[in-house]
Design a protein that fits this description.
By secondary structure, the chain is mainly α. The protein contains four helices and no strands.
Length: about 80
């Protein structure tokens, strides 16, 4: 995930989420990595990749802590899903 091409990095975020879908770990490294990237990345495509990775990993888990992190980003009208 140290590439300069944003599309490759966003794809890596999504791939990380897909490969860890349904896997439980008490340390939760995927959450730590992707939430950190979500908070520190400035490019929209990287934020979308991190959001998708989190969505793939935790789909159906009903985790309120993730909802607290993701909701402000999704509900922010200044964010766009258009690239």
């Amino acid at each position: 995930m140290d590439r300069r091409e944003n599309q490759i990095v966003a794809g890596a975020f999504m791939g990380l989420g897909l490969t860890n879908s349904g896997i439980t770990n008490e340390n939760d490294p995927v959450q730590a990595i992707l939430i950190d990237k979500l908070e520190t990345c400035r490019e929209e495509i990287l934020k979308i990749g991190a959001l998708m990775g989190l969505s793939f990993t935790y789909a159906g888990s009903a985790r309120a802590d993730l909802l607290d992190v993701i909701s402000p980003i999704i509900l922010d009208p200044s964010n766009s899903t258009r690239l």
